[in-house]
Specification:
alpha+beta; cell membrane; 347 residues; five-stranded antiparallel sheet; MetI-like; ABC transmembrane type-1 domain-containing protein; transport
Length: 347
């Protein structure tokens, strides 16, 4: 139950990621190089310069991020002048940073010079710190959960579609059809999963959807073997013989009578495949052939910061690592619970 609640929370976060993330720019890609690699809880004064407004509806910005993200400049101090505001940019060593003056005309919603400091200068806190590009790590983690859950759903859907179809055909008809499909299954099974995924990804090209397809095309084998075995047993039952005697066609017999009685182990395998898909996507992103920058991915975040483990800031790699571990563990526990619930002999 705890795993199920955790997954429900994760799905909620994935759907409303941009509404929850402190950085609502697309892909949480607001960079502040002067405050890179800061520890969790870091706070700094931030000057916000409004951007030119482009046409974007509120639904798009709510679910996919704000294309009209304003420019943020970390500052150590500022002074109000007669024509605008003079800022001193933030420096890590505490020395006086570069000076730059911004005029009142650059702040369209400020009616007076005093409005600039009240509306556009604020204290910003980075709860999980910043990454090596100065981006908010919490925002990147919240939006990155979309990649992990999406790869799981799409990859499992593709594997079920292919695996159930081929497994059902092989198990029901047998003979040469079964031998041909089993040959394909055995050949695919003999190739290491990660190697096959890399080969498919390189053939289709690097990208978001290519990873989904590549992972899905490598996870159908186990589903097909299990479905084949289940159908070979179920098709000998008397209700299947009765269905044939009533003149039902093969498609109806397979979909309406056999498959519903053979789906319990497939559901269990799907939970394990979900966890496996998340791990494979993280591995691909770590190798640089998964989700491409600036799109946030937990595996990509680890790739960017694994060297920081020995540079005194291990949390930059440990935080996404713990997130991957928690999500995979939750799916594995749910798979075990489903196995126990559907084990008729055990009950």
């Amino acid at each position: 139950m705890l795993s199920l609640i955790f997954l429900i929370v994760c799905v909620f976060i994935a759907v409303f990621a941009y509404a929850l993330a402190p950085d609502d720019s697309q892909n949480a890609n607001q960079m502040h190089l002067s405050i890179h690699s800061k520890s969790p809880g870091f706070t700094v004064k931030m000057l916000t310069i409004p951007a030119e407004v482009e046409s974007q509806n509120s639904i798009s910005s709510f679910f996919f991020g704000n294309r009209n993200a304003s420019t943020e400049i970390p500052i150590s101090s500022y002074k109000v002048t007669q024509s605008g505001v003079l800022i001193y940019e933030y420096t890590s060593d505490g020395t006086a940073g570069l000076q730059k003056e911004y005029m009142l005309s650059q702040f369209p919603n400020a009616s007076s010079i005093k409005d600039i400091s009240r509306r556009y200068i604020s204290e910003k806190k980075f709860i999980l710190g910043t990454d090596k590009y100065g981006r908010d790590l919490l925002s990147r983690m919240l939006i990155g959960i979309r990649i992990s859950l999406a790869i799981g759903f799409v990859a499992v859907f593709i594997s079920l579609l292919i695996g159930i179809s081929l497994g059902a055909i092989a198990g029901y008809y047998g003979g040469k059809i079964d031998a041909a499909i089993m040959w394909v299954i055995n050949v695919t099974w003999s190739i290491p999963t990660l190697l096959l995924v890399i080969a498919i990804t390189l053939a289709l090209g690097k990208g978001f959807w290519q990873v989904f397809i590549a992972v899905g095309l490598t996870m159908w084998v186990e589903v097909a073997r299990v479905v084949r075995g289940q159908i070979m047993g179920v098709k000998q039952m008397q209700f299947v013989t009765a269905a044939r005697a009533l003149g039902f066609n093969d498609f109806r017999i397979i979909t309406k009578h056999i498959l519903p009685n053979a789906m319990a182990p497939v559901i269990i395998i799907s939970a394990a495949n979900f966890a496996g898909a998340i791990l494979i996507e993280s591995g691909l992103s770590f190798l640089g052939i998964g989700a491409q920058p600036p799109m946030p991915s937990w595996g990509g975040i680890i790739k960017d910061h694994y060297s920081y483990i020995i540079l005194g800031k291990p949390y930059l790699a440990i935080i996404p690592g713990l997130a991957i571990m928690s999500l995979v563990t939750a799916f594995m526990l749910i798979g075990n619970a489903l196995r126990d619930a559907m084990d008729v002999k055990g009950n």
